Amino acid sequence: MNHAGQNAGHDPFSAPFLGVLGGMGPMAGAAFMARLTALTDAGSDQEHIPTILWSDPRVPDRPSGYLGTGVDPLPWMQHGVAQLERMGARAIAIPCNTAHLWYEQLAAATGATVLHIVRAVVKDLKRKGVQGGRIGLLGTAVTLQLELYQRELRAQGYDYVLLDADQHLRYCAESIRLVKLNRPLDAFEPAVECIGLLTQRGADAIVLGCTELPLALPHVARAQFDRVISDSIDALAADAIEWYQTQALHSARGASTTVR
Fold first, then answer.
1. pLDDT tens for residues 79-109?
2. N or C terminus of the chain: which is more exposed, having fewer CB within 10 Å?
3. Sign of the Cα pseudo-torsion (205, 209, 213, 214, in order)
4. From the CA atom positions of the chain, what is the Rg in Å?
5. 82: how many CB neighbours lie within 10 A of its CB?
């Protein structure tokens, strides 16, 4: 059967798909899908981004896997990337900060564009007018220990500030743990404590560098803070939207050229 788009020299089913490597954790992947939809400037259902979510919560724990004290999650993540590419994804977003410790291996395993959550956060800071200064970082212990964010921030001319080890364990790690237990309301107070402590240490802006933390700090509650907050879920969603709009523009130009 011929479709109108195919008759005009363009297959409507070939539009670029976004792939989402989710499940790390499951609620973070679902939240990314919700925020991707909420942040897309669309006038109808049809103007939203075609997306494939691969949510596999069986992926082994990333921090312990990276440190060699647990099962290696990389084969599981590579499998998810391969499935997304097979289903037609041309770009892949990974709403898990710690998973980006394997970014190079994942990007090398696919022909699709793999978006980078840390670079997306830096772009988000600049978009919000934070061009320099001290950035308060929150994330898993291994993400911070291995300087996933610090390297990129230094390269872009930022300084950063962290909680001390006891504060991180008591407040940041606890907030992340509670979200993973599906207790986001209980995760709110320790997350607020994190922001207060980083503000006292001179942070000009705060990065929620674990995708569980935006779930602990809902958007409606963020107006109480006098610091810019960069949400790694929203930043990655904004990057995905920018990628899609660029691809859709190229596709439209290609279709117009074909019709002529």
1. 999 999 999 999 999 999 999 999 999 999 9
2. N
3. positive
4. 19
5. 13
- CATH value of 118-232 in 3.40.50.1860, 3.40.50.2300, 3.40.1830.10, 3.30.390.30: 3.40.50.1860
The ranges assigned to domains in the chain are: 4-116+235-259, 118-232
- Helix intervals (H) in the chain: 4-7, 26-39, 62-67, 74-86, 103-108, 117-127, 141-145, 148-155, 165-167, 173-180, 184-200, 213-216, 232-259
- CATH topology of 4-116+235-259 equal to that of 118-232? yes
DSSP character for 61? P
Q: Percent of the chain having pLDDT more than 90?
A: 88
The topology (CATH level 3) of 4-116+235-259 is: Rossmann fold (3.40.50)
pLDDT(260) > 60: no
Encoding tokens for residue 18? 């976004």
Q: What is the pLDDT of residues 161-197, one digit of tens each?
A: 999 999 999 999 999 999 999 999 999 999 999 999 9
